[in-house]
Amino acid sequence: MTTIRATRPSDIPAINRIYNQPSVRRFTMGLPFVSLDASAHFFAANQSLRTSLVACGADGTILGEASLTRESSLRRAYAASLGLMVAEESRRQGIGRALLTALLDLADNWLNLQKLELDVFTNNEPAIALYRSAGFEVEVTQHHFAMQDGVLADNFAMARLRPGLVVDRTSPPPRPPQAPRQPFTLRALEPEDAPALAGLMNLPGIRHGTTAIPFMAETAMHGLASATGQHAIAALSGTALTGLAVLQQGQGRALHSATLTSMMVHDAYQGQGIGRALLNAALDLADHWLGLSRVSLAVLAENHPAIRLYESLGFETEGYLRADVFRNGAYADALAMARLR
């Protein structure tokens, strides 16, 4: 008989053992020889957003672990990412389905989550079949996503949505009078830019096209300039902060890649070449200094000027992200794009 229960600190050695099994590692983002200390730190550091369950055999042996990790972005708090693994010796016994069923009950009936997301390598056919049977659909095919068996392998981003979500079709707010065109410069974002950055994030046009919330505080900007693996490039027109691009480099088996997590230009400085300059600078960093072969991003599906800019610099659409962000009381879709070298 299999029992599903909440994960306890005493379960971490058993979970670490499963995570280090070769076939489990192959289909996750794990590296060989993950230490017990690293596993303990991971569980301790993610308690506020992550709900973890284990499947136990009749003798109490841990057979598998699964989790929901809720989004930290307030405008994506309705969504969570799902992870699941089953011990090599416990496969084909319904353990994965039991864990998945428990997580779906938790998401639907207790946490009020509207969207569940997961990543699965495209060659993991049993897992894909399980997820499809539970209502997950492939939204994106991410090419050269991560190392697997010595090569860069593709990945499916799959999602399951609660029915009846209202799609936001509102137009962007009117642009303010445009500022006179003037020379601009690029430099690293600095901690003292926090007040100006908060002002930038609170502009109606930027809020409409990003995950910013109204009335963002200056304190929310702290740390952006110095986060690990993050490269923030600021644009200044005179002394005014008028744009920002943030490139977040991958880790572990995704060291070859980065995500453009932020790309914005001041509402009053659109059409002055600032966005193209920021994007070129981020790609130069990725290509010529970090040696990356994949840069990805998400852009709201109706943001046609931004999509044209990305396409002009080699980005291609990899898929369509339904209900990717909450906006104006409804949900807005996005395109997933990537540029490969």
TrEMBL record:
Name listed for the protein in its UniProt record: Acetyltransferase
One GO molecular-function entry: acyltransferase activity, transferring groups other than amino-acyl groups
Domain N-acetyltransferase: 2-163, 184-341
Lineage, opening ranks: Bacteria, Pseudomonadati, Pseudomonadota, Alphaproteobacteria, Acetobacterales
Species name: Acidocella aminolytica 101 = DSM 11237
UniProt-listed InterPro entries: Acyl_CoA_acyltransferase (IPR016181), GNAT_dom (IPR000182), YpeA/RimI_acetyltransf (IPR050680)
Acyltransferase found in the keyword field: yes
Domain of life of the native organism: Bacteria
Alphabetical keyword list: Acyltransferase, Transferase
